[in-house]
């Protein structure tokens, strides 16, 4: 697998990938930790809640009158909380279960120092001691307490006399008994559906030999806790990802602006300078870029002015030499001198066109390159040249019309001049328009295919303007095409000859 195809190819993509990966790792590890310790956390919360419940009931019972405590204890019993007072502890000894330790510490702080407290959380679904006290056992112990017997061992004494306490404890109304039966039925149904209900038991010595025994169900609700962490983690990850996208785009926007400005500088030297706004680093970079652009602009202007001055100064002596050549009696020498002077003027003119590059100051506009090529080939055919065009009837791109026409005219004329014919074709390749100019000439050696774009470089060594030109045509053509964001390269034509490939960007 090639990692370059998977990894991002931009600075913004790299920053976004790093940020999102870090967030996913952090929240992933946090979620794993939560899932590992979720059960203990839920049990700890339930145990703390149960301990608080025991402490509240203990304080309520303490504040009640002694003769009303038994009635109060019986009234507070429910399917989830069962209390009874006995002479022996129902919890033989405390265990080392996590929930038991939590309840024990809370009760230890609530009761006086030295109070015998026993807490266990033994998990068993057996009926008997592990699920004690049941509702029947609670009623049995209450009956014994009313008869003055707190012993929990042995069967209940049905013949025991009923004391005064029994008269003060009114029996429950039928509606209350029916509600209790319905609560027990619902409680058992929930146990069957959800499985065994965890609980904690506690026995606390109070008033000498009396033991206060209580059994509290632990309300561990995991239904919401199972999905909530995933929902929270996903929401936070998406939120941070959106913030990362916004921050990355804001941070990398100056880099994109610099890339666009650098590309534009190669096309339009007189482009507007970059705005010097943003952070300190961005302002310094923009200031440096604008300084570089102004220096390049001054350099080109100075070079153009220098060549213009040289051309102006040379025109005067050339004119004088031309006048003097007219007085030469030898016709052959006079013709040679005039030919040399004409070549000098042509070279000066071509040099000025190359240095001044009027096309660089021309405004770019949308043009139909297909229609333009068809018109150029038609003009060449009209003067007797073997030129053909194949391609679409219409293809619009943004370019400088005069500069593009001059460059393509030079390439087509070179193909006709050195190859005898020119086959021009146009097609779109992705975001670029590709123009091919093929000829049937001898071609150009590979070593010279790049040299021909050097100013004043000529493959023909006769120095004759009729056969070799000035050596600036290919240079002017490449400079014009590159100033529009394209390029010109020379290739070998399949089957022999030379192929000139011109590429120009197409928007949309």
Strand content: 5-15%
Summarize the biggest pleated sheet.
5 strands, mixed
Q: What is the overall pLDDT average?
A: 76
In N-to-C order, the SSE pattern is HHHEHEHHHEEHHHEHEEHEEHEE
Radius of gyration: 50 Å
> Major sheet: order of its strands?
6-8-9-11-10
Helices and strands: which structural class? Answer: alpha+beta
Number of helices: 13
Number of DSSP strand runs? 11
Silhouette: rod-shaped
Low-confidence segments: 124-132, 150-173, 182-195
Helix percent reads: 40-55%
**End-to-end Cα distance:** 33 Å
What's the short story on this structure?
With 508 residues, the protein is an alpha+beta fold.
Structure, explained:
It is a single chain. The chain is built from 13 helices and eleven strands. By secondary structure, the protein is of the alpha+beta class. A five-stranded mixed beta sheet has the order 6-8-9-11-10. The longest helix is centred in the N-terminal third of the chain and has 53 residues, at 11-63. The two termini are 33 Å apart. Residues 124-132, 150-173 and 182-195 have low confidence and may be disordered.
